[in-house]
Amino acid sequence: MEQNGIFHSVCPLDCPDQCGLLLHKKDGKLVKVEGDPQHPVTNGHICNKVRNMIERIYDEKRLQYPLKRIGPKGEGKFTRISWAEALSTITSRWKELIETDGSESILPYSFYGNMGRLSAEGMDRRFWNRLGASQLDRTICSSAGSVGYKYTMGGSLGIDPEDTIHSKLIIFWGINAASTNMHQVALAQKARKQNGAKIVVIDIHKNQTGRLADWFIPILPGTDSALALGLMHILFSENMVDQGFLEKYTVGHEALREHVLQYDPASVSKITGVSVDNIYKLARMYGEASPSFIRIGNGPQHHDNGGMFVKTVACLPALTGQWLEKGGGCIKGNSAYLAPNTEYLQRPDLLINKHTRVINMNLLGEVLLTADPPVKSLYVYSSNPAVVAPSSSKVRKGLMREDLFTVVHDLFLTETAKYADIVLPATSSFENTDLYTSYWHHFAQIQQPVIEPYGEAKSNVDVFRQLANGMGFDDPLLQETEVSMIAAALDNPQNPYIEGINYEALVKEQYMKAKVKPMFPGKLPTPSGKIELYSERMKEDGYPPLPTYIPLVNDGDHPYQFVPGPNHNFLNSTFSNNQRHIELEQEPRLHMNRNDAMAQGIDDGEMVRVWNNRGECELKVSVGENVLPGVVVTQGLWADTKGGKQLVNSLTPERIADMGGGATFFSGRVSVVKM
Ligand SMILES: Nc1nc2c(c(=O)[nH]1)N[C@H]1C(S)=C(S)[C@@H](COP(=O)(O)OP(=O)(O)OC[C@H]3O[C@@H](n4cnc5c(=O)[nH]c(N)nc54)[C@H](O)[C@@H]3O)O[C@H]1N2
Ligand SMILES: Nc1nc2c(c(=O)[nH]1)N[C@H]1C(S)=C(S)[C@@H](COP(=O)(O)OP(=O)(O)OC[C@H]3O[C@@H](n4cnc5c(=O)[nH]c(N)nc54)[C@H](O)[C@@H]3O)O[C@H]1N2
Ligand code: SF4
Ligand SMILES: [Mo]
């Protein structure tokens, strides 16, 4: 390995931008991380979080060796052990459990701490299939919206974000893009400068993104489908629809025209809190602008009705025929364009029992406390459920169970790791070989090791190979090398867009673009091959077949809707243990409308107790006009960062959304009292 130089790399974080990076190395150590100016979409610009990545890589808190717990669960007392001891403790315990309780008593829990395809959904899945562990349904992020989008469009297929510089109207709908998709904001600003594009933001919180809008539209949480249906009502009644497009490329436009009559602007205004005038103004703006682009965010789909919201909003570009315009249409997610051969990567055929139970990760607390037969061992990697999972008081109660054998593989002793029996040190992505495919832009990238593993840290792929060995599984697929897995994953006859992208070419060129064909004319992967405004499949699945506004579930008698989203300087809970990132965020705040605060006699900067029957937090209030009355908002998954009670997920419901087993982080209600 070279000790000095500048090396290509890719940001491994769960962020749509998936920036190209350049790593500067001196005497074997990283000294600087910068954006790669040659990346065609991210152009050398990266966020603050990753510019500071070196502090995280060489943080003295980083785990170097395997550990075994010596104090009570949750306290964080551990002692160093060898890899041999760690692996044999785990595998011998699992062999016993398989004898006494069956392999389904073991539950993996993971998410996208590292977006590398091999790290996140490669060797791990092969191993769990072969072991016969309970299957984890990974629903915490965007699954409700993905299912909703699929009912309309057939799969995770949107437009090429690079085309959005041609858009004349850009709507950020429930996405805090200034923090969570900064290059989409850069493209929108370019469109504004070049073609006078207008930027509209529809959100429940006037955050960084709302502040950069030409027009910010505040809306009540969970009511966005009603707004979208109200827009459709006006588009049809004022003849602003593209009849030719509807006839040629959609199913159900006549039924939809009838159906949206009930969503008149006066009724929609009552539901959404958006004035009748503003509903007309937005509908006419949308009806007239072309090309127009909607960036659909994750916020509104973290509600009880989140799947239906995305299904609904995804109908809008079809009404005005926007899919035929360069820069017209929408993006919810674009992961289908770079889809590798997941069958090969994950080998579902290795699954020893086809009827293995499937556990929804959003129910982790409930599952640890009540599953029958019980979960006896939990193996957590690339995720920090003690902080990020809903109803965290229950999760933590589950993690406290003395009879639960818990293993955590991470770079740090996370809040979750403090409950583990065995902790394993993980490499950073810069120490690994992996394949990266963005879920927003159309470029694939490769990571090759730039630095040596930190201490005794190992990658996910490596740990699963070693666990397979320890379990005595002799299938050669469980020992495959990274390079061989990547090569095979890129050979996907189901996805013609990645033809020509292969391991060698990626190493040579670094950025390779999916060869995406225009969506229309063409056949969508929906049952009819067209955009399904009306969906027979939804009817079969028990939903209304046309887009419909369904109010949030009653979450109890508390005065405020509570929306705890992510923040600018952390990535979910990642970086919440880094002093510089903490200082940039200062502290978690509860944003509250001035009228609500006045009614309760709460002043700006005062501490309040936020509570419901699930838990409580103690937070400092920011009083202002950035949220509507009846709504309170926090930003950031603060973990136990600052001491005190700041764990917002102690308040969030573990209720499952309407589609895809999705999470409902933002559909909880709370009471707020002055401390
Ligand atoms: N800096 C930073 N970047 C990130 C992350 C991070 O933690 N920090 N996390 C990454 C991950 S995993 C994801 S999934 C994405 C998420 O990024 P986004 O797609 O931006 O999703 P959120 O930030 O959860 O919510 C987006 C917006 O929805 C708003 N919102 C909430 N409920 C509603 C509603 O009912 N209606 C409307 N119209 N708006 C609503 C919130 O106020 C917020 O401004 O970001 C990724 N990028
Ligand atoms: N209240 C509330 N809760 C939320 C959300 C919200 O908006 N509000 N957002 C939700 C969403 S959208 C998501 S995606 C989830 C995200 O939740 P998580 O996926 O748990 O994300 P992180 O908190 O960033 O934790 C990732 C962990 O993986 C570790 N890690 C990184 N790389 C590797 C690796 O290569 N190997 C191993 N073994 N570990 C690694 C990191 O150190 C970190 O501890 O949180 C959800 N929780
Ligand atoms: S977190 Fe997102 S914006 Fe920041 S460097 Fe990574 S991919 Fe780019
Ligand atoms: Mo996410």
TrEMBL record:
GO terms for molecular function: oxidoreductase activity. The keyword Metal-binding applies. This is Dimethyl sulfoxide reductase DmsA. InterPro entries: Asp_de-COase-like_dom_sf, MoPterin_dinucl-bd_dom, Mopterin_OxRdtase, Mopterin_OxRdtase_4Fe-4S_dom, Mopterin_OxRdtase_prok_CS, Prok_Mopterin_Oxidored, YoaE_C. It comes from Neobacillus rhizosphaerae. Residues 4-61 form the 4Fe-4S Mo/W bis-MGD-type domain. The lineage of its organism: Bacteria, Bacillati, Bacillota, Bacilli, Bacillales. Its EC number is 1.8.5.3. Pfam families: Molybdop_Fe4S4, Molybdopterin, Molydop_binding. It comes from the Bacteria. The keyword Transmembrane does not apply. Transmembrane segments: none annotated. Belongs to the prokaryotic molybdopterin-containing oxidoreductase family. It is an enzyme of class 1 (oxidoreductase). Its cofactor is Mo-bis(molybdopterin guanine dinucleotide). Keywords: Iron, Iron-sulfur, Metal-binding, Molybdenum, Oxidoreductase.
